[in-house]
Amino acid sequence: xxxxxxxxxxxxxxxxxxxxxxxxxxxxxxxxxxxxxxxxxxxxxxxxxxxxxxxxxxxxxxxxxxxxxxxxxxxxxxxxxxxxxxxxxxxxxxxxxxxxxxxxxxxxxxxxxxxxxxxxxxxxxxxxxxxxxxxxxxxxxxxxxxxxxxxxxxxxxxxxxxxxxxxxxxxxxxxxxxxxxxxxxxxxxxxxxxxxxxxxxxxxxxxxxxxxxxxxxxxxx
Length: 221
Hints:
Blueprint: H1 4-17, H2 28-40, E1 43-53, E2 59-70, E3 74-81, E4 85-90, E5 93-98, E6 103-108, H3 109-113, H4 117-122, E7 131-139, E8 142-149, E9 156-164, E10 167-175, E11 180-190, E12 208-210, H5 216-219
Parallel strand pairs: 6-12
Antiparallel strand pairs: 1-2, 1-11, 2-3, 3-4, 4-5, 5-6, 7-8, 8-9, 9-10, 10-11
């Protein structure tokens, strides 16, 4: 028997390698789980471990850190390993701070997150309007739900969310380059208060800032 994190990621690889005929077209449990997450989970925080797999199923990158989400539209991903990077969505803009490079990139949030997996995690209750529900199936006590973005402008072609005991703890994102991102979530806390300042971001002094942040006036246009 394979346990721990190795077993967790092996299980995800088995999902990737499995034949897709097993995906059910019936709404059933999978649709209920994703709708419950969108409607009833307002905040989420915990740790994540992430792997990037190329088109030949070779792991080309590994990272880990913490995640904080407050719906609608705010999140903070902090990458701690192998290098420090902070990604903050404050409701108007997405800020990406590469600590080693001393560089901040900012983009208007509405355009940057459209039809992306991040929108699914932190979007409003109508976020599912941007995705087609494909089906679901159960593998190793995890219910996998597959969604497809209606628009692929941001490069994502498929999203698979894994629920264990009714809670989201696995994610698989596929892009149009044949790459797959695998994410496992740990030590999750749901619907507990997260301090508002966690979703504020001001570029540190003496760093390069690339991009122009949106304002409430420009975002309303």
